[in-house]
Design a protein that fits this description.
The protein contains twelve helices and no strands. It is mainly α. Helix 3 packs antiparallel against helix 9 and helix 3 crosses helix 11. The radius of gyration is 21 Å and the shape is globular. About 35% of the residues are buried.
């Protein structure tokens, strides 16, 4: 596992590294990646946390089916996910057709990038928060309700503080997964520079023309991913130490 990143470091053209990672095309791709990954992370919090609460507190057949569908992108090839999104929100998709008639076109836009990233990143948020809720159980919430707290007060004063560290971990993991998304994005959103071309797509194009040009941006994404992994690992170690 150490050798691939080490190979990138050894093969990096250091004399032109700064020039290549600060070129206009690289900055555009990295900016779009960071912006769409940030928007994706917000969507994952807004959608994933309520889903995790429902999945951890209910165990009916319908809930299990929906949970399986939400977690499906964890094992689904990203290209297949992109095709599924295309046939849902594309111009000829089951929702895309009516939406286009209403003047809303999603496929091959920046919005499509965010949807593709959310599709693959959402399970990380759901799993992180759901696991914390199942571990914590409902005893604190039951006690608060017994003492007369309203459901809203229980949610904000008991449930949210209990899962806050897991929400943060899921947030970081979702951001990292969105930042590295490739297959679903190129299938559903295309590869238009400045519109849908994120950093992984720019690396793919550069690798076809000249592999040496793809190395600096690849190494930059490795460094960002490494920072995310170290940050999450350090936080978990501090949590274990405090426990």
């Amino acid at each position: 596992m150490v050798l691939p990143p080490l190979a990138l470091v050894l093969k990096t053209p250091w004399d032109t590294f700064i020039e290549q990672v600060t070129s206009q095309s690289s900055r555009d791709a990295l900016r779009l990646s960071l912006q769409t990954a940030a928007a994706t992370t917000v969507l994952c919090v807004l959608l994933g946390v309520p889903m995790a609460v429902v999945f951890s507190r209910h165990d009916g057949l319908l809930v299990r089916v929906i949970r399986s569908l939400v977690l499906l992108p964890l094992v689904l090839p990203p290209v297949v996910g992109g095709l599924a999104l295309l046939y849902t929100f594309g111009r000829l998709g089951i929702l895309g057709g009516p939406m286009r008639e209403a003047g809303i076109d999603i496929a091959f836009t920046t919005t499509a990038v965010i949807l593709a990233q959310t599709f693959v990143a959402l399970p990380f948020m759901v799993i992180s928060v759901e696991g914390a809720l199942r571990t914590a159980g409902t005893r604190y919430e039951d006690v608060a309700a017994t003492l007369g707290a309203s459901p809203t007060r229980v949610l904000w004063k008991v449930t949210v503080p209990l899962v806050a560290p897991s929400v943060l971990a899921g947030l970081v993991l979702s951001f990292a997964r969105a930042l590295g998304e490739f297959g679903a994005t190129i299938t559903f959103a295309g590869n238009a520079p400045g519109v849908t071309q994120t950093a992984p797509l720019a690396i793919y194009v550069a690798a076809i023309d000249d592999p040496q040009q793809a190395i600096p941006m690849s190494l930059l994404l490795v460094l960002i991913s490494l920072i995310v992994v170290v940050g999450v690992h350090s936080r978990r170690r501090r949590g274990v130490s405090r426990g």
